[in-house]
Write a structure and sequence with these properties.
Elements: E1 5-11, H1 18-28, E2 33-39, H2 45-56, E3 59-64, H3 70-83, E4 88-91, H4 103-111, E5 116-120, H5 133-150, E6 162-165, H6 166-171, H7 183-194, E7 199-203, H8 218-237
Parallel strand pairs: 1-2, 1-4, 2-3, 5-7
Antiparallel strand pairs: 4-6, 5-6
Length: about 260
């Protein structure tokens, strides 16, 4: 893939995983740059990133003072990527639940015309091998509710393993999104769908983290449920669509750089 790609990895206390994630990411996508956004991890995650970056190169760490949510981290990452001229921006978790070996497939889907490619657990070939039946049902129910409430034709709108074309992120005005938790993924998928964009779902096996602590909480789940319901009422009942920026071609991607 000839387009400049940036892989964005938010971290909070991922010292047990981040070095392996970065090495496997470089092996799978050697031409891509990596931006790690660390929210003040007290376990030295940012220091490990700097050590690996000095060895591998093309890895930047953006340190923030405190943990402020997945959505806020990705908005910072998108701002960095768009202002630095990247043409494809990738979201990926730092806990090895997302296999870096799938990165070439996500990037290839964008290279072949997708505005958004999603690593999907819920298309043929996708799976959640280590999940309990209860967790699998809860996740599927959340996706089905988002599909029904928002009219989404996406099977895995909550997946956080995805690649966006930069022009699409501008078109949907991604940096003005509002969700802070995992509802952020639904929000962006919804905005992309509203824009009539081309979406491809690539099957993945979602692996349970082996080290560290999950960031999922009941508060995050409730936020997602409430926001999806509010968006559905706003757009499908009251027909008040959010403002969107018309698509445009940005060959240079100039702008103020975010300090790393």
């Amino acid at each position: 893939m000839d387009e400049r790609s940036l892989i964005i990895i938010p971290t909070y206390q991922e010292s047990a995983n981040i070095a392996e994630v970065l090495r496997r990411t470089r092996a799978s996508a050697p031409a891509a740059d990596v931006l790690v956004i660390d929210d003040g991890s007290p376990d030295g995650t940012a220091n490990i990133v700097r050590d690996v970056a000095s060895e591998l190169g093309h890895i930047t760490v953006l340190e923030r003072a405190e943990k402020s949510g997945l959505g806020n981290a990705y908005r910072a990452g998108f701002g960095y990527g768009l202002s630095h001229g990247y043409e494809v921006l990738v979201e990926m978790d730092a806990d090895l639940s997302h296999d870096p070996a799938v990165l070439p497939e996500l990037l290839d889907a964008v290279a072949h015309g997708a505005d958004l490619s999603i690593g999907s657990r819920y298309v043929p070939g996708g799976s959640t091998p280590a999940w309990s039946r209860h967790r699998r049902l809860l996740s599927r129910a959340g996706n089905r509710y988002a599909q029904w409430a928002l009219g989404l034709g996406i099977n895995d709108a909550t997946s956080g393993f995805r690649a966006f074309r930069a022009t699409m992120l501008r078109a949907i005005d991604a940096t003005t999104s509002e969700a802070t938790g995992y509802a952020f993924q639904i929000e962006l998928a919804y905005r992309v769908a509203q824009h009539g964009a081309a979406v491809t779902e690539v099957p993945i096996a979602f692996h349970e983290r082996e080290s560290g602590k999950s960031k999922m909480s009941s508060r995050i789940t409730i936020e997602a449920l409430l926001l999806v319901s509010r968006w559905a009422l706003r757009d499908r009942v009251f027909h008040r669509l959010p403002r969107q920026v018309p698509p445009a071609h940005h060959p240079a991607d100039t702008g103020a750089a975010v300090a790393a």
